[in-house]
């Protein structure tokens, strides 16, 4: 049954969720404090780069509205999802100021019908109760004498940027947590079309073959909150583990791609997230592993495995500099190109992108750096103005006259480049593949000295 839904925060998670739920037939109002974003959405523009989101928004248009007014979205909603950003504060703990502000505004604008207020943002364990208390305080302050008619729930999000719609419509699972059975019932109804796969898939994103129903994990508030951190930290440590093995593979002359394949085909281990290279970036793995460690510390617990995964990830970035030093001897004065800036392909997100970190490390050593990305360059110029002069419109401009090129993000378009034509343009044709994504033989035949991070590299 269609429900009235309000989404607070229209970023990667809020916008994708809002559009998908509207596509499934719910009546969705998206609220954001950023007037520019709301104006863009009114004009039919999607303010982030996410494949197919604009097309799905057009399909869902009659069920979707966008506003900066909480009253318009919250007052008669059955469900209010909070999807605001929860970045890391200086001490490693999550910065909850946006969450607090959202909870206050929801409390002030809730109506009298039963509403489930849902944390979709990744929030520290215990935040559900904290948000509930804020909503209640502000509801009571603005509605004296009226008892609040709402319940709190947690509904952690597992989508990945770049594949956000598929991850939502064809999810591995849906997790909902609440200490109130009625709230759990409402949420399971919201997700019913996904759980039972009763919707007609959009033409541009067919249902994967043999895709069955989606399991629902219905649990208490604290368990749902911990599931999110446990999942992200496990994925992060899986990547760090293969990167650690890759270091050993390099020393013993083993091929890490084969090692990952032979290991991952064991279904208990699984092949995914065993891609060795310069390590993870993005807004969540770093933030969520830090938050897990901080929360555990509050309970006098150490998380040595998670802490080690973070250290390994930092080391992978420094390895790029070490590899270039091995090749070039002196980096100062060299020109180094970086292809790929977003933290992964198919997104324009630059949060904790390894490429930016690597560019800054190289610049601090005196290198001249040139940068290219298929979609994230406008964003880089806005968010890192100090690097704007390094941007080049075409990969060929990055490569021309360079002493080395680093492939930092495995965009498909880089695999399709005419590398044979690019090699002669370089001062020295060294290509450092940070993602193990190009074919060594093809690149060598094209005239490159092809090296990879943490992989066996032939001696010079
Ligand atoms: N980006 C991702 O792939 C995933 C993110 N998450 C979690 O979801 C949450 C949101 O992440 P993103 O969507 O990436 O963030 P984002 O930064 O892309 O979007 C957050 C949005 O919230 C808005 N906002 C901030 N304060 C507000 C307020 N008081 N009222 C209304 N709107 C407000 C901002 O203007 C922005 O549009 C975070 O907790 C994140 O950890 C979870 C899974 C995946
Ligand atoms: O909480 C979140 O924000 C999300 O974080 C990740 O999603 P995302 O960060 O969008 O992207 P991933 O595909 O997980 O990639 C993260 C980073 O790990 C790197 N990675 C990934 C896989 C791999 O094998 N090796 C590897 O280095 C990617 O290049 C990227 O920098 C999780 O995969 C999502 O389930 C989760 O919802």
TrEMBL record:
Keywords per UniProt: NAD, Oxidoreductase
Enzyme Commission number(s): 1.1.1.22
Pathway: Nucleotide-sugar biosynthesis; UDP-alpha-D-glucuronate biosynthesis; UDP-alpha-D-glucuronate from UDP-alpha-D-glucose: step 1/1
Broad class of enzyme this protein falls into: oxidoreductase
GO biological processes: polysaccharide biosynthetic process; UDP-glucuronate biosynthetic process
Binding site for substrate: 158-161, 228, 273-277, 281, 344
Keyword field contains Oxidoreductase: yes
Active site: 284
Pfam family, one: UDPG_MGDP_dh_C
Binding-site residues for NAD(+), renumbered to this chain: 32, 37, 86, 122, 161, 287, 351
Catalytic reactions on record: UDP-alpha-D-glucose + 2 NAD(+) + H2O = UDP-alpha-D-glucuronate + 2 NADH + 3 H(+)
Gene Ontology molecular function terms on file: NAD binding; UDP-glucose 6-dehydrogenase activity
Superkingdom per UniProt: Bacteria
UDP-glucose/GDP-mannose dehydrogenase C-terminal domain sequence ranges: 337-440
Classification via NCBIfam families: NDP-sugDHase
Protein family: Belongs to the UDP-glucose/GDP-mannose dehydrogenase family.
Name used for this protein in its record: UDP-glucose 6-dehydrogenase
Taxonomic classification: Bacteria, Bacillati, Actinomycetota, Actinomycetes, Micromonosporales
């Amino acid at each position: 049954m269609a429900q009235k839904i309000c989404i607070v925060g229209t970023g990667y998670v809020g916008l994708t969720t809002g559009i998908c739920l509207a596509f499934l037939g719910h009546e969705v109002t998206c609220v954001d404090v950023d007037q520019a974003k709301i104006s863009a959405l009114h004009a039919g523009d999607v303010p982030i780069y996410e494949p197919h989101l604009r097309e799905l928004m057009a399909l869902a248009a009659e069920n979707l509205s966008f506003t900066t007014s909480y009253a318009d979205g919250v007052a008669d909603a059955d469900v209010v999802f909070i999807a605001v950003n929860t970045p890391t504060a200086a001490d490693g703990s999550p910065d909850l100021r946006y969450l607090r502000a959202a909870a206050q505004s929801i409390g002030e604008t809730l109506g009298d019908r039963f509403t489930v207020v849902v944390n979709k943002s990744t929030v520290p364990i215990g935040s559900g109760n904290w948000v509930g208390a804020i909503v209640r305080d502000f509801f009571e302050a603005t509605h004296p004498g009226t008892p609040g008619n709402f319940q709190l729930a947690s509904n952690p999000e597992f989508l990945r940027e770049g594949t956000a719609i598929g991850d939502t419509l064809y999810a591995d699972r849906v997790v909902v947590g609440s200490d109130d059975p009625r709230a759990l019932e409402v949420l399971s109804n919201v997700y019913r079309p996904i759980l039972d796969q009763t919707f007609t898939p959009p033409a541009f994103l067919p249902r994967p073959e043999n895709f069955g129903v989606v399991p629902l994990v219905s649990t208490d508030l604290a368990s749902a909150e911990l599931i999110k951190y446990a999942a992200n930290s496990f994925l992060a440590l899986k990547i760090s583990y293969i990167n650690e093995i890759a270091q050993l593979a390099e020393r013993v002359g083993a091929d890490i791609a084969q090692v990952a394949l032979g290991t991952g085909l064991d279904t208990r281990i699984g092949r995914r997230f065993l891609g060795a290279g310069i390590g993870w970036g993005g807004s969540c793995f770093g933030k969520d592993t830090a938050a897990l460690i901080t929360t555990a510390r509050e309970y006098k617990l150490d998380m040595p495995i998670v802490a080690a995964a973070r250290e390994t990830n930092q080391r992978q970035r420094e390895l790029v500099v070490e590899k270039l030093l091995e090749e070039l001897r002196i980096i100062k004065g060299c020109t180094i190109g970086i292809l790929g800036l977003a933290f992964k392909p198919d997104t324009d997100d630059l949060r904790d992108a390894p490429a930016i970190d690597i560019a800054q490390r190289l610049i601090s050593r005196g290198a001249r750096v040139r940068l290219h990305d298929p979609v994230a360059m406008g964003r880089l110029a806005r968010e890192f103005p100090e690097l704007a002069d390094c941007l080049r419109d075409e990969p060929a401009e990055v490569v021309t006259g360079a002493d080395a090129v680093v492939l930092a993000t495995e965009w498909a378009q880089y695999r399709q480049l005419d590398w044979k034509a690019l090699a002669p343009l370089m001062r020295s044709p060294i290509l450092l593949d940070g993602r193990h994504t190009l074919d060594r033989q093809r690149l060598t035949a094209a005239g490159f000295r092809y090296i990879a991070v943490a992989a066996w590299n032939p001696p010079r």
